């Protein structure tokens, strides 16, 4: 679809206060390309389109709407959410949508601040000596959920899987015999997508329900390191453990493990969380 040039004429007796797309672009600080895109998505449609030339024209009444859209985009609000805000049935519904987006921004800001703090700490301080242990994880019967997941979805998947496992054990009156754990394929790290398993050791055999299935988790010898706090900086612990295993020539093929000694289910205090990372090794005594 073509547009009239900046300042181009289009005779509209019923639209005295209208702009060609170029003038509307200058008035709103939205590029012509952006305005065309908003038209195509239905977010901001022209007040009139000439059926013969295809020229778009906008009215002065659309300037405030364009300004609102521009500010929401400055806050990285997706177009579909802006559309929902503009078409909200009442003020309360509109405010709820805006508040939800602001909460996401605050969450993203908190993650950014955490990453900045972590980077500053890395630049200012040498890494403390890691307290590496070695142990054998025994063979256990467990309730488990296994799926192929993307790395970007791993945290939400982990929380959902643990919640489902705990609910299944509670419903079947099974008692957990150890901390929850995770088994992660190498592909999950090397290709950002791979099989992940969450499990909770329990007495007896759990009945399959939903995603939950019974599973025997095999024994394995591990080099271990306990990471304190959230998973935001857990890569640092992985790096320390990998360095130790490599330097001591202990590594063997096999999926990595995590054991959630203290987690969100136990306390909302993130600083109290403890995750034991396990790297498969060949024990030499």
Walkthrough of the structure:
The chain has 285 residues and is of the alpha+beta class. It is built from 8 helices and 11 strands. It has helices at 21-28, 32-41, 63-74, 79-86, 91-124, 154-171, 186-190, 234-247, and strands at residues 18-20, 48-49, 56-59, 133-137, 140-150, 180-184, 193-201, 213-217, 220-228, 256-262, 274-280. An 8-stranded antiparallel β-sheet has the order 4-9-11-10-6-7-5-8. Strands 1-3-2 form a 3-stranded antiparallel β-sheet. Strand 2 and strand 3 form a beta hairpin. Helix 4 runs antiparallel to helix 5 (91-124). The chain starts with 17 loop residues before the first strand and ends in a 5-residue tail after the last strand. The relative contact order is 0.10. The model is unreliable at 5-13 (pLDDT under 50).
Summarize the SSE layout with pairings.
Elements: E1 18-20, H1 21-28, H2 32-41, E2 48-49, E3 56-59, H3 63-74, H4 79-86, H5 91-124, E4 133-137, E5 140-150, H6 154-171, E6 180-184, H7 186-190, E7 193-201, E8 213-217, E9 220-228, H8 234-247, E10 256-262, E11 274-280
Antiparallel strand pairs: 1-3, 2-3, 4-9, 5-7, 5-8, 6-7, 6-10, 9-11, 10-11
Helix pairs in contact: 4-5
Mean pLDDT: 87
Uncertain runs with pLDDT below 50, 5 residues or more? 5-13
Largest sheet: 8 strands, antiparallel
* Overall 3D shape: elongated
The ordered string of helix (H) and strand (E) elements is EHHEEHHHEEHEHEEEHEE
Strand content: 15-25%
Report the strand count: 11
Give the radius of gyration.
28 Å
Across the major sheet, the strand order is: 4-9-11-10-6-7-5-8
Structural class: alpha+beta
- Report helical residue fraction: 25-40%
Report the end-to-end length measured between terminal Cα atoms: 75 Å
Tally of helical segments: 8
